């Protein structure tokens, strides 16, 4: 479904991603793990083309994303939930959802406000509140809901558990599993191994923009060397 | 009482055009973050196009459809400008685009001159609304009443569009975080184009609708610019109801001003603004601008380095060559070189606060002209010797900058810029209207240096020493702890404060220093020309400064100086032609598009690319 081949990305003169390759299969939840500064966010942004890889290819369902504009990437069916959430604080919840709205996509039950409010009941109660009145957890929910309004096939979640209360993180686990049931593929960038293990099928570990591990969580469990070296557990 | 009401109504009617134009400016800025200097030009085009249409289309229907068609036409002109001029430079450093819009002003000025000629055009009166209605015995034009009635509907329609429709939601979202809107699948380019269309169309409508009251002329573009900036700032950036209230406030006060204190008309508007902003720094209905809210635009700042050995030698060789100029060239070139150095010092002082301080001043001419006037006034009234005048000019200009800076630095970003512009206009209007003291439009003449400097060659050397000395001083300051603190305050206020830098104080000091050196340039100017006129304080002069700093390269130390030299030389050559504005405007636009980092920045990038590709090759190559 999504395939990164030998991606190199720079930020200014700093070389962030180094020949990074991995893939996400249809319906699969893959967790991109690594420490702070390992290049997780840059990877996600390089898929979205918010950061332009200097070389390598990103392929989504047979189409190369490199050289596309971010809005074209989104239109192809990739939903992006940024690390900082970036909800529109001056807009109400309903208006935030409106911004994310895109036409229905074949093979996906189209998302609408009602279906999203079923999953995120907190948002329903506050639908006419402005974004700035929401708590961090609610903002995270809104950010995910807003992206779902675009009916994506693949969801890029950048550190969704960061700075969020444990209760909300639990709620997020349920949500992601529910989305997986719907057939959505997910790339989950995370530092929190416990959270990742609860939702993801497979783990990709990066450090300094290089891939260090790609396999199941059982394999990762067995490989303490990798775990100790690249994850702060 | 009757007169009072009649004047109130006139003010309300005048507010119609002002509101339309200002709301367009506010919309465009909100979404694209472009300060559209060409907005006054759209207004002027609306007036001229409306006038031409009214010649062809008869009757009341023709009149009103001419106004609508003029709005549409200007909207499409706005789209052309957006597609051809602005779209290629959205990624350039913030505010760089305003240089492009300045090029557009020049182009439109000459095109309007070609099409409609230099004569002022008297607007036709509205068919069916020609007479007056007597309200409490005072005549009130029917057309005024029509304008008063129409404006709230326009306000409501705009408000509905922005608050209740999907387009409006997208526009508001883009105002806050346009990259995120793009990442959610919205093609921002078309959103930008659409907003540009709407904004330009509103300006065109404003121009056409005021025809029966004001007509059309070639000075309309600059004349309305300061007013609409003031309206937008008083109302609060991005607030349509705020723009309406501010437009009414300004227009009504203006009518009363003309009636009761005619000598204050130009000043009044800026006094109102200063009062409003003192009480409400973000305008009547505006909200606080949160720093960094709009995401990083353009590339991160590159640290600047002191000049290397070879660069120093190069500059030295150049200076020696410059010093030889009077021996090898005609006197004309010596005078030209004097002008160039004066302008370079002015530009360098602006660059100091703009490039290093990140403080975009739209009113830097106030200090240049201020210095020139301080010197001229001292000579004129106190018969002061030139040496004293030269000492007082930078001090006076520095004090002026300190006062204005103190008022403006409470704001940031575009509010700061607009306030500097408005206060500079305040200075200009004071000088312009205070005939008895400043000579008003006739300026101050006969300000010459003493005999030992009166020769053009000698004065050229004097200018070289003082002017280039000033430039080197500014450059030196960039590499002192003061310069570091200034750059730190630009890059991150929070981190700078956390390391113990009093950012506001540093910026205030820098603003004053820049003002003082601009004043020094002003003093050099006044003694080289022997006279000074209010034009040296005008918006156009401030814009000239901005243009050269951006064209030269904001992010490079020598940008301002190189830009100033290049523009003065080009201008000297190009103004010999009839339609030089057109040529210069196009040239500016072309430079903006092919060299978005400015002249120095782009040359450097080219140079570094060559070096880079010769050395380690970047991996792969999808580009």
Radius of gyration of chain A: 17 Å
Structural class of chain A: alpha/beta
Task: Please state the oligomeric state of the protein chains shown.
Answer: heterodimer
Percent range for β-strand residues of chain B: under 5%
Average of the residue pLDDT scores of chain A: 91
Number of helices of chain A: 10
* Sheet/helix structural class of chain B: mainly alpha
Roughly what fraction of the amino acids of chain A lie in strands? 25-35%
Helix content of chain A: 25-40%
Which chain pair has the greatest contact?
Answer: A-B, 35 and 27 residues
Number of discrete helical segments of chain B: 26
SSE topology string of chain A = EEEHEEHEHHHHEHEHEEHH
Amino- and carboxy-terminal Cα gap of chain A: 30 Å
**How do the helices and strands follow one another from N- to C-terminus of chain B?**
HHHHEEHHHHHHHHHHHHHHEHHHHEHHHH
Per the CATH scheme, the topology name of chain A is Rossmann fold
Helix content of chain B: over 70%
The total domain count of chain A is 1
The CATH class of chain A, by name, is: Alpha Beta
Query: Low-confidence stretches of chain B at least 5 residues in length (pLDDT < 50)?
Result: 291-298, 613-623
Description:
The complex is a heterodimer of chains A (233) and B (623). Chain A contains ten helices and ten strands. Chain A has one domain: Rossmann fold (3-Layer(aba) Sandwich), CATH 3.40.50. Chain A has a six-stranded mixed sheet with strand order 6-7-8-3-9-10, with helices on both faces. In chain A, β9 (202-207) and β10 form a beta hairpin. The two termini of chain A are 30 Å apart. With 233 residues, chain A is an alpha/beta fold. Among the domains of chain B are: 2-218, no CATH class; 332-537, ABC transporter involved in vitamin B12 uptake, BtuC. Chain B has 623 residues and is mainly α. Chain B has 26 helices and four strands. In chain B, 73% of the residues lie in helices and 2% in strands. In chain B, the strands form two sheets. A two-stranded antiparallel ribbon of chain B has the order 1-2. In chain B, α1 (2-32) runs antiparallel to α11 (240-260), α2 (39-56) runs antiparallel to α3 and α2 (39-56) runs parallel beside α4 (97-116). Chain A binds chain B through residues 6, 8, 12, 48, 50, 53-57, 66-67, 69-71, 73-75, 80, 82, 86, 88-91, 95-96, 98-102, 146-147, 150, and chain B through 166, 169-170, 172-173, 175-177, 179-188, 287, 299-300, 618-623.
């Amino acid at each position: 479904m999504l395939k990164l081949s030998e991606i190199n990305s720079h930020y200014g003169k700093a070389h962030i991603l180094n020949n990074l390759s991995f893939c996400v299969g249809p319906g699969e939840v893959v967790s991109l793990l690594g420490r702070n500064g390992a290049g997780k966010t840059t990877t996600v942004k390089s898929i979205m083309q918010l950061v332009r890889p200097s070389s390598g290819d990103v392929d989504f369902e047979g189409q190369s994303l490199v050289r596309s504009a971010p809005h074209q990437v989104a239109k192809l069916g990739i939903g992006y939930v940024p690390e900082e959430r970036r909800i529109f604080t001056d807009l109400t919840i309903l208006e935030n959802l409106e911004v994310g709205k895109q036409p229905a996509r074949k093979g996906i039950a189209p998302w609408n406000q009602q279906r999203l409010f079923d999953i995120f009941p907190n948002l329903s109660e506050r639908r006419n509140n402005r974004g700035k009145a929401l708590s961090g957890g609610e903002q995270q929910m809104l950010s995910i809901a807003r992206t779902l309004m675009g009916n994506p096939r693949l969801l890029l979640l950048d550190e969704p558990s960061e700075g969020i209360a444990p209760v909300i993180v639990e709620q997020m686990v349920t949500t992601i599993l529910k989305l997986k049931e719907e057939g959505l593929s997910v790339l989950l960038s995370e530092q929190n191994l416990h959270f990742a293990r609860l939702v993801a099928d497979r783990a990709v570990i990066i450090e300094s923009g290089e891939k260090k591990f790609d396999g199941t969580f059982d394999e990762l469990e067995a490989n303490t060397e990798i775990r100790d070296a690249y994850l702060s557990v | 009482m009757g007169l009072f009401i009649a004047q109130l109504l006139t003010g309300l009617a005048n507010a119609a055009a002002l509101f339309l134009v200002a709301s367009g400016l506010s919309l465009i800025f909100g979404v694209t973050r472009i300060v559209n200097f060409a907005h006054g030009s759209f207004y002027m085009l609306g007036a001229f196009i409306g006038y031409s249409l009214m010649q062809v289309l008869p009757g009341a229907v023709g009149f009103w459809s001419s106004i609508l068609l003029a709005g549409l036409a200007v909207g499409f002109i706005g789209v052309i400008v957006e597609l051809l001029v602005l779209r290629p430079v959205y990624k350039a450093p913030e505010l760089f685009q305003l240089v492009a819009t300045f090029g557009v002003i020049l182009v439109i000025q000459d095109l309007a001159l070609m099409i409609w000629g230099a004569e002022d055009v008297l607007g036709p009166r509205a068919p069916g609304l020609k007479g007056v209605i007597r309200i409490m015995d005072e005549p009130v034009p029917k057309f005024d009443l029509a304008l008063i009635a129409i404006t709230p509907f326009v306000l409501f329609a705009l408000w509905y569009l922005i608050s209740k429709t999907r387009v409006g939601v997208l526009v508001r979202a883009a105002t806050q975080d346009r990259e995120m809107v793009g990442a959610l699948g919205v093609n921002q380019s078309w959103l930008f184009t659409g907003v540009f269309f709407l904004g330009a169309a509103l300006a065109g409508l404003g121009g056409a609708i005021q025809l029966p009251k004001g007509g059309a002329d070639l000075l309309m573009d600059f004349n309305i610019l300061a007013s609409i900036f003031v309206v937008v700032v008083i109302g609060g950036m991005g607030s349509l109801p705020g723009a309406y209230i501010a437009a009414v406030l300004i227009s009504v006060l203006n009518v009363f001003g003309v009636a009761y204190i005619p000598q204050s008309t130009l000043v009044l508007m800026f006094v109102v603004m200063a009062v409003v902003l003192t009480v409400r720094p973000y305008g009547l209905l505006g909200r606080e601008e949160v720093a960094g809210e709009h995401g990083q635009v353009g590339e991160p700042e590159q640290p600047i380095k002191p000049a290397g050995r070879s660069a120093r030698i190069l500059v030295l060789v150049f200076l020696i060559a410059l010093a030889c100029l009077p021996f090898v060239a005609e006197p004309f070139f010596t005078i030209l070189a004097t002008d160039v150095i004066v302008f370079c010092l002015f530009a360098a002082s602006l660059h100091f606060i703009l490039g290093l301080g990140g403080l975009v001043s739209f009113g830097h001419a106030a200090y240049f002209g201020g210095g020139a006037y301080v010197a001229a006034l001292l000579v004129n009234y106190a018969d002061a010797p030139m040496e004293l005048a030269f000492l007082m000019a930078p001090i006076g200009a520095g004090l002026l900058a300190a006062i204005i800076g103190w008022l403006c630095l409470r704001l940031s970003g575009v509010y700061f810029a607009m306030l500097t512009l408005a206060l500079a206009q305040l200075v200009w209007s004071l000088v312009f209207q205070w005939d008895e003291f400043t000579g008003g439009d006739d300026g101050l003449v006969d300000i010459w240096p003493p005999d030992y400097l009166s020769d053009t060659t000698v004065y050229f050397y004097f200018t070289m020493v003082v002017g280039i000395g000033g430039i080197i001083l500014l450059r030196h300051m960039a590499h002192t702890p003061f310069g570091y603190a200034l750059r730190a305050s630009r890059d991150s206020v929070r981190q700078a404060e956390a390391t113990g830098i009093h950012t506001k104080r540093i910026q205030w000091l820098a603003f004053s220093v820049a003002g003082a050196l601009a004043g020094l340039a002003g003093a050099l100017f006044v003694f080289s020309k022997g006279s000074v006129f209010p034009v040296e304080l005008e918006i156009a002069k401030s814009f000239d400064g901005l243009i050269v700093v951006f064209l030269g390269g904001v992010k490079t130390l020598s940008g301002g100086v190189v830009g100033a030299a290049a523009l003065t030389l080009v201008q000297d050559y190009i103004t010999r032609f009839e339609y030089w504005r057109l040529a210069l405007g196009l040239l500016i636009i072309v430079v903006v598009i092919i060299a978005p980092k400015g002249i120095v920045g782009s040359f450097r990038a080219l140079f570094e690319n060559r070096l880079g590709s010769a050395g380690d090759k970047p991996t792969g190559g999808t580009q």
